Amino acid sequence: MDKADSSGVQLYVESTGDGPAIVFVHEFAGDHRNWEPQVRHLAPTHRCITFNARGYPPSDVPDRIDDYGQDQAVADIAAVIRHCGIDRAHVVGLSMGGYATLNFGITHPDKALSLTICGAGHGSDPQTREQFLKDSAELAERMVTLGMEKGTEHYANNASRRRFGQKDPAGFAAFNRQFAEHSATGSSLTMRGYQLRRRTIYQLEEEMRRIAAPTLIVTGDDDDPCIEPSLFMKRTIPGARLWVVPRTSHTVNLEEPFWFNEVVGRFIAEVDSGRWQP
C-alpha cells in the first residue's frame, strides 16, 4: 500500500500510467475511487494520481480538529506530488477538492501545470451562508451520533445530487455505498475543520486575480450553489474558461463521464502542447 507523508499524516496514493502528471482531488462525499472513469480515459497518455484525503481510510484519520482545514488540504496535494517524485502536475478537483485545487494554485503556482476546478462554491452565497453553516454543523453531529449510513442519508440525496440518481441509479447507489464506508470521525472532523472554517470563493478574490496557471472551471447547471461562484471565478481568474454542463448537478465527472473526459482531456492536452492561450 503506497502512502505519502504529509507532516506525519499518511495519505493513501494510487498512480496509473506514464506521461505528464494529473492529480485528482476528491469531494467530501467521495474518495479516490470516484475518479476511476477519468483514470481509465487519461492513463494511456498521462500519469494519473489519485489519493484519499486525511480522514478517509486507508489514509490516516487524525483525531484533532486542528489537523483538518484548507491549509492542510493544500499541503496534502503538495505532499502527494512530492511523494510521486514530480515537480509539477495538472490538478483536477471536485467540490471540497475543487476548493483545495483553487487554493493550491494560489499557494503553489510553481507546481501547477493547470487547474480544473469543478463544483466549487457551496457555502459562498452571503444570503445562504448562515444556513450552510448550520446544516454543515448538524451533518457533522449526525455522522458521529447516527453513523455514516443514517447520518448522511439526507445529504447524499439532496437537490445537488438528484440528477445523478436519475441518470445512473446503479452508479448513484454505488457512490452512496462507498460514502457510507467512510470514517464517521474523519468525515465529521473534515466538515468541522474544513467546510465550516474555509473562506468563501468571494473572499479569495484578491488571490485569484494573481493566478497565472491555465484554469478551467466546471459546474453543472443544476448545482445552484456553485453557479454564481463559478461565474465569479471565471471573471476573476485571468484567462479562465468556464464550462457549464447542461442538466447536471454536483458530481459532474460521474454524471457525465464521457463529456467530462472529453472536455477536460482536451484542455489538458492543449496545455501540454503549448497551445493554451490566456
Describe the structure in your own words.
With 278 residues, the chain is of the alpha/beta class. The chain has helices at residues 36-42, 70-83, 96-107, 129-146, 148-151, 153-156, 162-167, 169-180, 184-195, 205-208, 224-236, 252-255, 257-272, and strands at residues 3-6, 9-16, 21-25, 47-51, 89-94, 112-118, 215-220, 241-245. Strand 5 (89-94), helix 3 (96-107) and strand 6 form a beta-alpha-beta unit. Helix 1 crosses helix 13 (257-272), helix 2 (70-83) packs across helix 3 and helix 4 runs antiparallel to helix 9. The N and C termini lie far apart (40 Å).
Please compute the radius of gyration using only Cα atoms.
17 Å
Largest sheet: 8 strands, mixed
Give the neighbour order of strands across the main sheet. Answer: 1-2-4-3-5-6-7-8
The amount of helix comes to 40-55%
Count of beta strands: 8
Residue ranges: pLDDT <50 for 5 or more in a row?
none
Quick one: overall form?
Answer: globular
Round the mean pLDDT to the nearest integer and report it: 96
The ordered H/E elements are EEEHEHEHEHHHHHHHEHEHH
Quaternary organization: single chain
Distance between the termini: 40 Å
Structural class: alpha/beta
In percent terms, what proportion of residues is strand?
A: 15-25%
Give the number of helices.
13
